[in-house]
């Protein structure tokens, strides 16, 4: 194991049939009665396998979206796993439930600034990996936070504006 990791090769890269592995582990996760910590590890392994092998495992996104709530234990780990599992081979409509859940649960006027910042950063991570998941209306709503009273929220919103200036300038309103 250690010789491989020093060469920069992870065990996941050596899987003979990564899609079957990810599907089986995901099925086990769905029906799991394991401890929370074990489930979290399974989520991370499925997510990383999807990322490393650029797999398309659409049910994973609706599954993980259900757990993306500010009060959820280890929510930052789950948000990271959700974003990591996104790439441009995944259809945007498969990722859409994750984006919608993050926005609905984290990015609204009644959210704490920390939650809003985390939500906007997660949206940024999702859109970096799969820009087509963003809609023009949603982008307009999220970039409106560029003048928020909280610095973290302002910075996260402006970071999203910067991303779309690069990726899809036409989607940004003229004066963002």
Summarize this entry quickly.
With 176 residues, the chain is mainly α. The protein has helices spanning 2-6, 18-30, 36-53, 59-65, 75-84, 92-106, 113-129, 136-143, 151-167.
Q: Top keywords for this entry?
A:
mainly alpha, 176 residues
Give an account of the 3D structure.
With 176 residues, the protein is mainly alpha-helical. It starts with a helix and ends in a 9-residue tail after the last helix. It is globular and about 50 Å long. Helices cover 62% and strands 0% of the residues.
Break the fold down into its secondary structure elements and pairings:
Layout: H1 2-6, H2 18-30, H3 36-53, H4 59-65, H5 75-84, H6 92-106, H7 113-129, H8 136-143, H9 151-167
Helix pairs in contact: 2-3, 3-5, 4-6, 5-7, 6-7, 7-9
User: Strand percentage, roughly?
Assistant: under 5%
Give the helices and strands as they follow along the chain. HHHHHHHHH
User: How far apart lie the N and C ends?
Assistant: 49 Å
**Which structural category fits the helices and strands?**
mainly alpha
* Shape summary: globular
Low-confidence stretches: none
Q: Helix content range of the residues, please?
A: 55-70%
- What count of helical segments does DSSP give? 9
Number of strands: 0
By oligomeric state, this entry counts as single chain
Query: Which sheet architecture does the biggest sheet show?
Result: none
- Averaged pLDDT, please? 91
Cα-atom Rg, whole angstroms?
A: 17 Å
